[in-house]
Amino acid sequence: MGKYVYSFGEGQADGNNTMRELLGGKGMNLADMTSIGLPVPPGFTLTTEVCKAFYANERQYPQEVINQVKEAMSLLEKRMNKRFGDADNPLLVSIRSGAPASMPGMMDTVLNLGLNDQTIEGVIKQSNDPRFAYDSYRRFIQMYSNVVMGMDTDILEHLLEQKKSSRGITQDTDLSADDLKELVAEFKKSCKETLRRNFPDDPTEQLWGAISAVFGSWMNPRAVTYRKLNNIPAHWGTAVNVQAMVFGNMGDDCATGVAFTRDPSTGENYFYGEYLVNAQGEDVVAGIRTPQPINRAKYQEGDLPAMEDVMPENYQELVKIRDLLEKHYRDMQDIEFTIEKGKLYMLQTRTGKRTAHAAIRIAVDMVGENLISEQEAVLRVSPDQLDQLLHPSLDPQAEKNVIARGLPASPGAASGQVIFSADEAEEMARLKKDVILVRVETSPEDIHGMHAARGILTARGGMTSHAAVVARGMGKCCVSGCGAINIDYEKQQFTTTNGLVVKKGEYITLDGSAGEVLLGDVPKIEPEVSGDFAVLMAWADKFRRLKVRTNADTPYDSGVAREFGAEGIGLCRTEHMFFEGDRIQTVREMILANDLAGRKRALDKILPMQKGDFLGIFRVMKGFPVTIRLLDPPLHEFLPQNDDDVSELAHAVGMRFSEVKSHVEKLHEFNPMLGHRGCRLAITYPEVYDMQVQAIMEAACELIRDEKFEIVPEIMIPLVAHVNELRILRENAVKVADAVCARYGVKVNYLIGTMIELPRAALTADAIAEEADFFSFGTNDLTQTTYGLSRDDAGNFLPDYVERGVLKRDPFVALDQRGVGELVRLGFDRGRSTRPDLKVGICGEHGGEPSSVIFCHKIGLDYVSCSPYRVPVARLAAAHAAILEK
Ligand code: PEP
Ligand code: MG
């Protein structure tokens, strides 16, 4: 018989801190906190195995589960010295989800469970506070009827409003015990009328109803979306925690709060948190009341009294717990606590979500505090998250018109059009529009809109509100709790305290680091890579084996990449240089030329331009390898697309319109990506590659001769499918290169290699390697040709594939390891089989995507190459790969 239910309480726990998969994060930490002696209300956890059984058995439970819950309930009664369903001394419980990975707010919760018309008497007696008792009761019915019975929340909410207006009051807190008692009866009646079912009075029935609802919420749409966005597998399931209720809303010696052991936004080492006197947990997170700070560390004028001053003893106890938790978990924790009649209880601890900025600072600080090693510090920062830091901030020189201030909930800066609904934000983003989602507060229902938006602005809610927590996790900039704006959803506009009206569609800018809202699209600047970031990256570099290069075509981009730590260029796409300024006219002249002599005339004009580009790039990349790819795209990409452009070109080159037009038509291809491109062009027109090789070698020779440069140009021939293509083109290239060297009297150690971007090339890599000094896997084309999936058209339908789970991820984003990756592995092995010293890298977009980088490490490539901004991401991912391998 398996164990399905794990109890905790009174310093003892069945579970321990290795059982995340089974008990979920919350259940594991409740067990662990109990074991280390923290004041945790006792309870028990139904494991993720129960969740699996629940779904496998049409939402029924095996008898063993039912028996074990019964036993755990008896133990809980004993520990609390109360009885579930007892009219005299009743036990009330909370039912909460807790998956192995944190999914904040995505699943359901039921509080105050166990209340009915008999047990309420006991609660009144225990609390000596009928108002509190009936308020708990009516909250329970509202929550349970919605979460478990599926009733629309508006119906009971409406009755509540009616009651208030009939009493001439506006605040819930002004309702009397009698009002609330009446409401309880009205709520139950309304349930019966709406659902044609009685609200259950039997506590055991309530319990199983709530447990099933929480397990059921694992598959609700917002949880499904959240899992998809965060790569959490559906088969994990959630655990369910049943725990004795403690109340933060029993009077002014009660409170509830959430805190982070360090600042989750900046990483600064100070105790950061918010609390509310006389409130239930949900009140803090939901942003209904503005919370008060727990201490005076960052006190600002206008802040409400701090817990440090209001409840000094509880605060000191909390500080001790904070230190204990940090030493125990050796990481920043996100905690929830409640104070019931002066006694502090810990409701939760978990590893706190943090911005990338904070993640780095905390990791570096903790090494300094001897809490973790350098390797652990490197592993603490996820490469995906790093991306956030590489985002822009406001240009300090720019003119700024600050129209409102709120909380700096998640750093970075973003501009976009104001949109008030999540659905619309998603729609606009699909149309490639930048939007700022503006809401009074956000809820888990808004998650898709938050994902689509550039930034998020909310009028209500603190630093731990839903908007703040989710935005930080997504690496999006967010200003929350901006009370200075008044949102009118009906009119689709918001008004600032100065009376400025901002309508839907107008541009605003958010500065999530300063908590400012600015009018218009304010210029931004690129991030700096120094301080803690540089320290952490230096550690990463110490541990990684893979080299990281960049894909860059200009000296400027090469410079950015060097700043980010690129160790050379893995792909310089020379065709991009053909579009610079008015060069395109010369290129067109070359394409339109009727004979070799005409083509050579045009190529002679292009030669010095390309040589100039190479000189610039070589200088920036001094001492590092530079791989230059010869012309790759089909020629028609350089030709005019419409008649106006054709006639302009005809005029410029002195040809007739019809002549140019027919030339353009002749170059039309049905399937250009599989057409006359890459090395196939050079088989027909060898003079094009000859010119490019000459430009590369002249630039190299001049630098070696005049500036005493050490330089090894790597000349790369694209789209090779058959070794004979490479053999011919290599011979040509060597002839040109050697002639240049001889002319300059300089020796250059150049390499000639190829891209592996067609399945045939991978399959015959052993033969191809005999003609190549290096391989670079072009996984963009290799994905396209392996999948038979057009990289230019797949955007129309691939999202459906991911949405419906046909594919887990877009294969153009994350390397398809099973298919395309297999060809990379095979091509690599076959290449090395005939040429053991073959240099091998990857230069498709995957070179900067963490899971793909880890794959490249595992199969043994020498380097990855990616866009300049992703270089740090790749460096960190490469370090993770190397550390985790050990
Ligand atoms: C590739 O195909 O992976 C590649 C890097 O080349 P391009 O994207 O220019 O086709
Ligand atoms: Mg390619």
Description:
It contains 34 helices and 34 strands. The strands form seven sheets. Strands 15-25-24-17-18-19-20-16 form an eight-stranded mixed β-sheet. Helix 20 runs parallel beside helix 22 and helix 22 runs parallel beside helix 26. It is of the alpha/beta class. Bound molecules: phosphoenolpyruvate (PEP) and magnesium ion.
Concise summary:
The protein has 886 residues and is an alpha/beta fold. It contains 34 helices and 34 strands.
Name a few traits of the molecule:
binds phosphoenolpyruvate, 34 strands, eight-stranded parallel beta barrel, 886 residues, alpha/beta, binds magnesium ion, 34 helices, eight-stranded mixed β-sheet
Helices and strands in order:
Elements: E1 5-9, E2 12-13, H1 20-35, E3 43-46, H2 48-56, H3 63-80, E4 83-84, E5 90-91, E6 93-98, E7 109-113, H4 119-127, H5 130-147, H6 153-167, H7 177-195, H8 203-216, H9 221-229, E8 239-244, E9 255-260, E10 272-277, H10 281-286, E11 292-293, H11 307-310, H12 312-329, E12 333-340, E13 343-351, H13 356-368, H14 374-380, H15 383-386, E14 393-394, E15 402-405, E16 407-410, E17 413-419, H16 422-430, E18 435-439, H17 447-452, E19 455-458, H18 466-474, E20 477-480, E21 485-488, E22 493-496, E23 501-503, E24 507-511, E25 516-519, E26 524-525, H19 531-543, E27 547-551, H20 555-563, E28 569-573, H21 583-592, H22 596-620, E29 626-629, H23 643-653, H24 657-666, H25 679-684, H26 686-707, E30 713-717, H27 723-744, E31 751-756, H28 759-763, H29 765-769, E32 774-777, H30 779-787, H31 798-803, H32 820-834, E33 839-842, H33 850-859, E34 863-866, H34 871-885
Helix pairs in contact: 4-5, 5-7, 6-7, 13-14, 13-19, 14-19, 19-34, 20-22, 21-22, 22-26, 23-24, 26-27, 33-34
Bound molecules: phosphoenolpyruvate and magnesium ion.
